[in-house]
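Weekly sync, protein design subgroup
Attendees: M.S., D.O., the rotation student, P.L. (late)

Item 1: inverse folding check
M.S. brought a backbone from last month's batch and wanted to see whether the design step gives back something sensible before we order anything. D.O. pointed out we never logged the input encoding, so this time it goes straight into the notes. Structure tokens as presented (159 positions):
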């Protein structure tokens, strides 16, 4: 009887590191020359970094000197509140869209109080929302173009 010894040649494993990317797995596989069919057996490390914009709310108030305050303006369900809110939103929302086209998202009228102090929330999505000074400047410039209400420039408060 003769014993046979078999020796295998050493094998070498190759490790490939894939840099983080925002590409999809299929794109990464196709650009490395690996077929989609082969992809089911291969797991590639990938990092996807989502981009998120910061959301900022600026509370803004201003006085309308020539408007008359009524108790109906205290009630958000009243016709007087809804009409005044729609009038302000309809005119100022466009002003803010034009002034801050890449970051302005919405304007919501929050409340009215005595001597008609108008309070609204402006919503911005951007890594760099406008400053309080920029927002105030937009309102001051809009004062001469609005109708149905007035904006007393010295009464504007942002945040």
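Designed sequence read out in the meeting:
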């Amino acid at each position: 009887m003769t014993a046979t010894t078999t020796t295998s040649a050493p094998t070498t494993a190759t490790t490939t590191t894939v840099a983080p990317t925002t590409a999809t797995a299929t794109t990464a596989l196709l650009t490395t020359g690996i077929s989609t069919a082969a992809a089911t057996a291969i797991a590639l490390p990938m990092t996807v970094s989502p981009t998120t914009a910061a959301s900022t709310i600026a509370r803004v108030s201003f006085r309308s000197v020539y408007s008359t305050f009524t108790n109906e303006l205290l009630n958000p369900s009243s016709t007087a509140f809804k009409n005044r809110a729609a009038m302000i939103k309809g005119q100022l929302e466009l002003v803010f869209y034009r002034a801050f086209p890449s970051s302005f998202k919405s304007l919501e009228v929050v409340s009215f109080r005595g001597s008609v102090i108008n309070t609204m929330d402006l919503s911005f999505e951007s890594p760099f929302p406008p400053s309080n000074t920029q927002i105030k400047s937009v309102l001051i410039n809009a004062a001469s173009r609005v109708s149905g209400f007035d904006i007393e420039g010295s009464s504007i408060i942002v945040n």
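Discussion: The chain has four helices and four strands. The CA atoms of residues 44 and 63 lie 60 Å apart.
Action: P.L. to compare against the previous round before Friday.
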